[in-house]
Amino acid sequence: MGRWEPNARERLVHAAVDLFAEQGYDNTTVSEIAQRAGLTKTTFFRHFPDKREVLFAGQEMHSRLLADGIAECAESATPLEAVAAGLDAVAASFTPVQREFGPRLIAVVTAHSELRERSAFKHAGLAAAMTEALEKRGVPDPAASLAAELGAHAFSRAFARWIEPENEESFPALARQALEELRAAVELLG
Amino acid sequence: MGRWEPNARERLVHAAVDLFAEQGYDNTTVSEIAQRAGLTKTTFFRHFPDKREVLFAGQEMHSRLLADGIAECAESATPLEAVAAGLDAVAASFTPVQREFGPRLIAVVTAHSELRERSAFKHAGLAAAMTEALEKRGVPDPAASLAAELGAHAFSRAFARWIEPENEESFPALARQALEELRAAVELLG
After folding, report:
1. Which of A16, A91, A106, A184 is the S-S candidate for A54 at Cβ 3.0 to 4.6 Å?
2. For residue B35, with 0-12 CB atoms within 10 Å meaning exposed, 13-18 middle and 19 or more buried, which class applies?
3. Does A189 contact B117 at a Cβ distance shorter than 8 Å?
4. CATH 1.10.357.10 holds for B58-188
5. Domain chopping of chain A, boundaries
6. What angle do CA B117, B112, B126 make, to 5 degrees?
7. Can you tell me the distance from the alpha carbon of B110 to that of B25, in angstroms, rounded to the nearest whole number?
8. How close, in Å, is residue B127 to chain A by CA atoms?
């Protein structure tokens, strides 16, 4: 078997989410994931350090896209407009497969405390990436971390809505809606 | 050795933070922690499931105190006033020992990705406890989770300031200050 496998990464994510949903996260081994994907364990470890990271494979890319979107935004944009641009940029990376997989992925993560922990860390990582990008634009602390936190919340809320079977809206539209709801909720805080 | 040991929990936390700071988190075993504390491994496991949880021992109590503080607040209080009351309640549990330990604790957690992950989970847990308590007061979503998120941020920011050697302010005063800064930062978001 050669080193290069077409769509190996995507096939591994597919196989892992299927197996986790079928037989549980704890009961699934890396060997089984590789086998289900028609690949070797070696190929698995070329793509992921362990089975947990298969579920959080997008984090680095999401962080980078959010930061790039914020950086490339017009200088005149407000912090929340920049965050919205970041969310647009990350949305461009989403595929129909991710949408189809979303509900199973969320179910697997929710069912397992180690994965919920990892998920909280992803949330914090996305917020940190946005905070840094906003600070580079000259947004002062704590406005930068607050805008980033709203962005990370909007990301989660929009993702949860986007994967609903009956949803027909685009991720960017849902993300802007979520950001707007959060922004409006500020008025209720007192 | 009897089942009851005076201040066993506190002695174990002391010993663990000292050892983690001295020789690293990965290089420290539960046996060493117990030995340094003058206790047995069995006593350790009566208090903590593993060495990591020694560092997050306060999470359940903090969540409960935050929720209680929010629940017991006057009906007329705004969501942020309720959050401030929750932070007051949790501050009442802080001891001079925690303040003394704070810088070492933060250094250990910051140096280790597994601990940063666990710390993000604690942050999310505190926010979830506050969100639930606010929703019970009738605060609608997403205002409840937003107020809770500001509360969790204020908690971290105030704690970081409280443990600074030159600090002379109380935790509740610092927490209110942090909340007010976050509230004011909202005006900059656009």
Report:
1. A16
2. middle
3. no
4. yes
5. 8-53, 58-188
6. 30
7. 11
8. 11
Q: Does domain A8-53 have CATH number 1.10.10.60?
A: yes
Q: Is the ipTM of this complex over 0.95?
A: no
Nearest to A143 among B140, B149, B188 (CB): B188
Query: For chain B, how far is it from start to end, CA to CA, in angstroms?
Result: 63
Q: Which residue type is seen at A38?
A: G
Q: Is the pLDDT of residue B24 over 50?
A: yes
Tokens of A64: 């980078």
Tokens of A165: 């079977």
Residue with tokens 């007329």: B76
pLDDT in tens, A25-77: 999 999 999 999 999 999 999 999 999 999 998 889 999 999 999 999 999 99
| Closest residue to A190, CB basis, from B80, B121, B181 | B80
Residue B63 CB contacts under 8 Å (≥ 6 apart), including other chains: B125, B126, B128, B129
**A108: its two tokens:** 């697997």
Contact B182 A139 (CB under 8 A): no
Distance CA B132, CA B125 (A): 11
CA-to-CA dists, residue A189 to A15, B82, B135, angstroms: 44, 10, 13
User: Residue B170, CB half-sphere, CA atoms under 13 Å: how many?
Assistant: 10
